[in-house]
Amino acid sequence: MNTFGNIFRLTTFGESHGPAIGGIIDGMPAGVDIDFDLLHADLEKRRPGKDTICSARNEADNVEILSGVFENKSLGTPIGFIIRNNDMRHQDYDAIKNAYRPSHADFTYQEKYGIRDYRGGGRASARETACRVVGGAFAKMILKSLNIVIKAEIENYDEWRKSVSEAQQDGDTFGGIVKCNISGCPIGLGEPVFNKLHAALGAAMLSINAVKAFEYGEGFRAASMRGSEHNDYFIEENEKLKLATNHSGGILGGISNGKDIYFRVAFKPIATLPKEFSGRHDSSPVARAVPIVEAMASMVIADYYLLNRNSKI
Amino acid sequence: MNTFGNIFRLTTFGESHGPAIGGIIDGMPAGVDIDFDLLHADLEKRRPGKDTICSARNEADNVEILSGVFENKSLGTPIGFIIRNNDMRHQDYDAIKNAYRPSHADFTYQEKYGIRDYRGGGRASARETACRVVGGAFAKMILKSLNIVIKAEIENYDEWRKSVSEAQQDGDTFGGIVKCNISGCPIGLGEPVFNKLHAALGAAMLSINAVKAFEYGEGFRAASMRGSEHNDYFIEENEKLKLATNHSGGILGGISNGKDIYFRVAFKPIATLPKEFSGRHDSSPVARAVPIVEAMASMVIADYYLLNRNSKI
Amino acid sequence: MNTFGNIFRLTTFGESHGPAIGGIIDGMPAGVDIDFDLLHADLEKRRPGKDTICSARNEADNVEILSGVFENKSLGTPIGFIIRNNDMRHQDYDAIKNAYRPSHADFTYQEKYGIRDYRGGGRASARETACRVVGGAFAKMILKSLNIVIKAEIENYDEWRKSVSEAQQDGDTFGGIVKCNISGCPIGLGEPVFNKLHAALGAAMLSINAVKAFEYGEGFRAASMRGSEHNDYFIEENEKLKLATNHSGGILGGISNGKDIYFRVAFKPIATLPKEFSGRHDSSPVARAVPIVEAMASMVIADYYLLNRNSKI
Amino acid sequence: MNTFGNIFRLTTFGESHGPAIGGIIDGMPAGVDIDFDLLHADLEKRRPGKDTICSARNEADNVEILSGVFENKSLGTPIGFIIRNNDMRHQDYDAIKNAYRPSHADFTYQEKYGIRDYRGGGRASARETACRVVGGAFAKMILKSLNIVIKAEIENYDEWRKSVSEAQQDGDTFGGIVKCNISGCPIGLGEPVFNKLHAALGAAMLSINAVKAFEYGEGFRAASMRGSEHNDYFIEENEKLKLATNHSGGILGGISNGKDIYFRVAFKPIATLPKEFSGRHDSSPVARAVPIVEAMASMVIADYYLLNRNSKI
Question: Which end of chain D is more exposed for a tag (fewer CB within 10 A), N or C?
Fold first, then answer.
């Protein structure tokens, strides 16, 4: 149950305070150009300690690629990787050894498994997302060759920045929204019925820590719209069918229709409040979430691209 | 890719205008009491043609259970079922043989597969949801023995009813929101990281036709909340830990925490407008969506209940 | 757990004495020519009651295709099918209601599930194999377009026939061996490590009722061979590499190498002895096993052909 | 496709001449006692260079456990591990850079992927089996608590030893057979139809490098037996049903029946002949195969034990 994807599959492991986290990317086709700069740039974007919103914890995030790459091409074999946990200050976490932090997973892990690595967030730590970024970077290498571009950003950045600063001054934290756009996606991605493309994107986003909501196209607004407002009508242009509008968000019947796919993801505020717990903590989850949203979306699109190769004989 | 679930699995088939739709429920444990009344009552709730909002198409939805049940108990073997398509008026659909209806899946199916059953919505038809209701009914039989109760309803029913009626008078359609509550869910359901319980619920809801958005707990509201507002704090009551509030929506770190799970699902308006197409069509998808939301939620909870049996040795 | 395959997937249901057996073929690519004659011919080969070795039970095996096919082409959507159980003489089985037949699955089903359909073999009945033949027939339609030919036959037919007749005269039963050859298989099918092509073929064969052994290439003989005897050496012919011999059985490192794939499957004698139980019973399982071996091999090759489409970008 | 198992799942990575091999064990239930001595003892058994039959290559096989274990108990989270490739003498392999070794996977890998790590066997190397031994060791920790004992050995050890020595003197190699016995297996393991217990064991064995054949119970002998010879009859002992014989090999209808499970696995001779290629090479694959057969069998039994927990409500 620690595997994501169908053909392009990422399996991850690792507690925040064990020796390392890491994963295996399976289903990477052979012959893809490996772009290590892209990989390192994405990890750098996710890394905490870069500004005043993210904590100062020094996670070097030095990823080591252990297999599946040869002479800068993918081999078609699984890509194993690890990231060492270098900066473990165990004393920071002594206070929580016998306590459950509010709105954390300590309580549910203990109940589910009867045991937990109490030294930190363990598997529920945000550190786990570094592995998603690695998986996403390899997916992006596939998408690059297909001219598919995925771009996420914080919604209303200037206002959000102000709300976070104010919360910080009060020893508090704040939530936020990340929006994402996918352009250049070929028509036909998505499996009807249970594996609609937006259901896969939604599941991917909802699997990110602190995410509480997902919408695509008009989203919740669609619930109070009429059909005549919401429908996208075909127009003919140069003897080809084209959609005049894109209320649908680039997906019809669960299948991409060639228009941009766009969606929004809501994050709750970080549960660990500086005024309650000392230590290194972020003030809002969305500061680091942008590359994670891109990574997850990239893995979904790469996976569904490969799946779709078998739609026709 | 027409399978839903991990241990409790529903696989479905069927075009709206072929001889039948149906499915196979695999992973139903042996020894569950089979409640045919529950099954028929759920199908009846989903059936169109009951009021002025749903079309008059007479879908008898007579399900035939073909295997897996013996002397009113589940055998532990797969449960096969079919529902015949009785009321096929092919002439209704002649107009669309060579045309793509706006905001329908006609176009994307044709592009993805190079072929489609043009006589109707085919696999993308709302008729497919009858199979989900059958799967959900069997899941509910498991949940009944665990005292888990899942209850969905249309949000702001009275106002929504008025908006639909007004749209209907204009030959138009309207969207809507279904909200759902799960009570009695044991602590510990949900697989951390990629298969968080709410990610599974979200994927299930987003796989329903016309759904554009999903949120649980505070949902999008959480994005503009501070941590001190959103956190649920533990209080001690009779020497047991208890959560004073439930902003989280019953799930922490992707794992159920024993509080009620609640979520909201947004549906876009039906794309087929009465003023554009004659025939039998619903005015809002949510009229029939309530039992489908319950069915999908029931399958998720039953599946994750069975998965969780292997969390500990 | 009633699903076979990865991309091309067959899921089946049905007890021998319920209303019907059937299944769903998922992953059939769109645009394949549907050959109903092939389907019916294969079912006819499997049908019992054709000669003195097979029992006289009249299984009409009238398969009804319910979806996924339109204007004689596959739609890319799942293919649902059922086969009614017409000829149920319940009285034949009264004797076994409270008894476990020797070397049958009655005992293990009862222990595993705590319940069983005691009216017959239930899910363990040979009747289940009709669904495999349907799945195999659709797989063959894919293989036909690729010029892959799969041919199974009873080994040493004349001697085997004599042994069966002698056993029959004594109220006894007899085993047998089916051998199979696959020609025209493209190079590259098979996933190294856990999903080697021969491991998939072996699992497929061992899943057939009464199978006790599987070998490919030199099989057990290879265990007492030297490397210099067993190795297949490359020779150059018209500037292309060619293998001079085929001890390996057409598979190297789990991947097809372009030579014929050949394997042998051993069946134990039927456990129900005419001298012990009255009723309609076969004298040897291999009489009906030939089309089943072909069906299972066809599904494996079709599945691995589709899987292999994603080996390279 | 580099994943083995359903609930207890091992995913592996690694080329023989890359920086490391390794894997992730997912589905290990929480609370299992971790026995590092068992793990190291099993790895030691598999390690080459211990006697004259295995090559002198110094594979330290120092496994590093990176997650999923805390205070000597399993956490219920995935167990990541790596084994560094320390002893890489690249010059040994220069001769094969532009050549395909006979009866090796060089040719089929190159054809399948269009690229290969020509420095050695890559993913097809026997080195990969070290990861299987790690997975098997963790499975054994589950089985230990259930009193299930799995024991493999080389068949006819003294004669086989002589044949290998003679082959060695001629610069040649030799095959061999490993037999395996499973005692203490509870009744009820195995999923009928496609996932019979022996089909899973067969697939597991056939996935091991150099395996050409698998049989269980009477195996190929059953093909020339009569039903009256092969049937295992129930006898009553102390008012409990018992099987007098065990021709079936401990499995009926694909489900374990409580008797010992036994099977045989045939290995072809190693393809690299000392008289053709200098370097470090084994003389027979079975010398190192015993712990690998045990490891694969252990993973199958642990997996099917966990699967079977959901057979009944």
Answer: C
